[in-house]
Amino acid sequence: MKSLPTLGYTEVPYGEVTVLAGAERGAYPYGNSLLVRGSDGTLVIDPSLSLVAGAPPADLVLVSHAHEDHVAGLGQYDDVPVHTHEQDLAALRSREVMAAAYGLGGEAAASLDRMLREDFHVRGRPDAAGFADGAVFDLGGRTVTVVHLPGHTAGHCGFLIEPDGFLFVADIDLTSFGPFYGDVGSDLTDFEASVRRCRDIDARWYGTAHQKGVIEGRAEFRRRLDAYAAVVQKRDATLLALLAEPRTLTEIAAHRLVYRRHVEGAHVDPVERRTAAQHLDRLTESGLVVEVEPGRYRAAT
Fold first, then answer.
1. Is 1 a residue whose pLDDT tops 70?
2. DSSP class of residue 52?
3. Strands, sheet with 42-45, edge to edge from the N-terminal-most edge strand
4. Range 1-5 average pLDDT
5. What is the Cα–Cα distance from 247 to 262, expressed in whole angstroms?
6. Is residue 214 helix, strand or coil?
7. CA 32 to CA 63: how far, in whole Å?
8. From CA 100, how far away is CA 88, in angstroms rounded?
9. How many CA atoms are closer than 13 Å to the CA of 186, on its beta-carbon side?
10. Is pLDDT above 70 for 118?
11. For residue 193, how far is the Cα from the chain centroid?
12. Which pTM value belongs to this model?
């Protein structure tokens, strides 16, 4: 297996915040990182694969969440303190813990570990420290405040940078793919609460980790955020239509709520099953779906 090409990044300034825009508009496996300078120090947020070939110097690294595409460049900062939310800390400290969050077994798990090591250079950072919601990193004339936005992972966070008015929302990324909450530690209810929290934060710029880049203005951000959140309701509607006839979780997963038919890989079925299970739970709780016999569900009439 050959390592993915790093391809470099492009510096794009927003006030005194610099977006290190990844290759291919930051589409996975690449991503967008941030460089934030103050009078007393400099920090980098989410060192991506594009930083592997040459990363800017920094006094501190913050990681929005422990996924490989957000830490691939972390090896460029071996002597720099690194922090992430306390609920993602174990996964940042250990590659094995990070891999376990994907819920794969057997050869698929071994293949995932090889990918993390060889493609994304993930080694684990046992020295990493944790932070909590509301933690403030003062760089001198510029602050970075942690905004806990769980759901994608339990410790997923954004960062509000002042006085620039820049909110980095990481993997609440506004893509047409929609919210991803298919890992072992993901949570749909938390994700929706995080989307609502983002909607209430007034900023000048809203930066995403992938593809959509930076959105200027609260009104435009809210419009895109609402469209992004609506994908969850579309999945609910798709599931309800599918349950016109009784079906098992296995049958629902095979139909797919998340990935298109052409997408292949060992991760697809586990993600589809975990996603469908969360939708089933909430639709059952609301009375829109009933369990007609153990393990078989249909829409309520």
1. no
2. T
3. 10-14, 17-21, 33-37, 42-45, 60-63, 82-85, 129-131
4. 60
5. 23
6. strand
7. 12
8. 12
9. 25
10. yes
11. 15
12. 0.96
Question: Sorting pLDDT into bands at 50, 70 and 90, what band is 70?
Answer: very high
Amino acid at position 271, single letter: V
10, exposed or middle or buried, with CB in 10 Å at 0-12, 13-18, 19+?
A: exposed
Instruction: Measure the CA–CA gap between 27 and 17, rounded to whole angstroms.
Output: 21
Which residue, 214, 196, 197, 213, is CA-closest to 205? 214
Q: CA-to-CA distance for 198 and 221, rounded, in angstroms?
A: 9
Burial (CB count <10 Å: 0-12, 13-18, 19+), residue 66: buried
C-alpha–C-alpha distance, residues 10 and 19, integer Å: 8
**Which pair of structure tokens corresponds to residue 240?**
């309800």
* CA distance between the termini of the chain: 52
In sequence order, which residues have a C-beta less than 8 Å from that of residue 171 and are 6 or more positions away? 64, 65, 67, 70, 152, 156, 180, 209, 210
- Residue in 228, 160, 231, 159 with CA at minimum distance from that of residue 195: 228
Structure-token match 């720099």, residue found: 80
- Angle at the Cα of 249 from the Cα atoms of 243 and 253, rounded to 5 degrees: 90
Q: Is the model's pLDDT at 3 over the cut of 70? A: no
Residue 211 has pLDDT above 90, yes or no: yes
User: Which residue type, as a one-letter code, is found at position 99?
Assistant: A
Half-sphere exposure of 8 (CA within 13 A, CB side): 2
- SS3 (DSSP) at 50: helix
Sign (positive or negative) of CA dihedral 188, 86, 171, 99: negative
CA distance linking residue 265 with residue 268, whole number of Å: 6
